[in-house]
Amino acid sequence: MAYLGNYQNTKAVLDKYGFTMQKKFGQNFLVDSNVLENIVTSAGVTKDDCVLEIGPGIGTMTQYLCEHARFVIAVEIDKKLIPVLNETLSEYDNKVIINQDVLKLDLNAIAEEYNDGKPIKVVANLPYYITTPIIMELFESHVPLESITAMVQLEVAERMQTGPGSKEYGALSLAVQYYSNPKIVLKVGAGSFIPRPNVDSAVIRMELYKENPVSVRNEAFMFSLIRASFNQRRKTLVNSLSNAGLQGVTKETVTDALSEMGLSPTIRGEALSLAEFAKLSDLICS
Ligand code: SAM
């Protein structure tokens, strides 16, 4: 089977199966071999690695991954793509194709079954309609992960990488930076996909920390504070947190904690770093 990473070969496979791409599944297939090679290189995939690919589509990137990795787990929601994948990946025996919604899969069990519970690498051209839920699920379910290398909307990649003070900074930035060290490795134009998406894209590599960069007594509580701060980001932290209905969080507890941290009572959440949210969380908890 020829490589699919170009327009002609992709079109030929789509025509052969009479496959029409579905917007509801975020189907924009890569037709740019330079971008494909760049993703696999940036992900640092070697013959020691077990890779999880979320949304293989017709198998374009999966072919590259099978060539470079020890084993590839490809999880695809669209059952119409399974016969296509069975053909385009027929010459590789180092893969499994799972027809499932990745958000409904027990990824810890998958890592256990296919990699003895050792850290896996995620490599994906993600469906843009559920990028954030997928990334959060990967982090919060504590699946053993070494890194995530993902194609996402450029704007989302920028949100993941940015720090306090910028308008893109928010709950996603803090979650990504609590669990990993993110780096945009490539910007990709709409012409590298069919059909062309309406937005620019970027490949971001998130290297998972072995130890989180800040320590916090109650991780879940810190993330409740973070979400509440950015739900009403134009309000002061004191107002947005005390309105959020979180147990034990009142105007007084937040003002006292901010004062102990030497921060202004009129500060907004968007000005706080991850370390400051951790400290605030510990002070309010105590
Ligand atoms: N990897 C292919 C490529 O680069 O050409 C396709 C990428 S396309 C942007 C996203 C893929 O994710 C589609 O094949 C889509 O059907 C699949 N997908 C969408 N939602 C999914 C979900 N919840 N679980 C697993 N796969 C999903």
Task: Give the gist of this structure.
With 286 residues, the protein is α/β, with parallel strands linked by helices.
Task: Give an account of the 3D structure.
- This protein is α/β, with parallel strands linked by helices and 286 residues long.
- It folds into two domains: 7-208, Rossmann fold; 219-285, rRNA adenine dimethylase, C-terminal domain (Helicase, Ruva Protein, domain 3, Orthogonal Bundle), CATH 1.10.8.
- The protein has helices at residues 7-16, 33-42, 60-68, 82-88, 107-115, 131-140, 154-161, 171-179, 219-231, 237-242, 251-260, 274-285; strands at residues 29-30, 50-54, 71-76, 95-99, 120-125, 145-153, 180-188, 193-194, 201-208.
- The radius of gyration is 21 Å and the shape is elongated.
- The mean pLDDT is 95.
- The structure holds S-adenosylmethionine (SAM).
- S-adenosylmethionine (SAM) binds next to strand 1, helix 3 and strand 3.
Keywords for this entry:
286 residues; Rossmann fold; Helicase, Ruva Protein, domain 3; seven-stranded mixed β-sheet; 12 helices; 40% helix; binds S-adenosylmethionine
CATH third-level topology of the largest domain: Rossmann fold
Quick one: CATH class of the largest domain? Alpha Beta
The major pleated sheet works out as: 7 strands, mixed
SSE order = HEHEHEHEHEHEHHEEEHHHH
Number of domains in the coordinates? 2
Fold topology:
Layout: H1 7-16, E1 29-30, H2 33-42, E2 50-54, H3 60-68, E3 71-76, H4 82-88, E4 95-99, H5 107-115, E5 120-125, H6 131-140, E6 145-153, H7 154-161, H8 171-179, E7 180-188, E8 193-194, E9 201-208, H9 219-231, H10 237-242, H11 251-260, H12 274-285
Parallel strand pairs: 2-3, 2-5, 3-4, 5-6
Antiparallel strand pairs: 1-8, 6-9, 7-9
Bound molecules: S-adenosylmethionine.
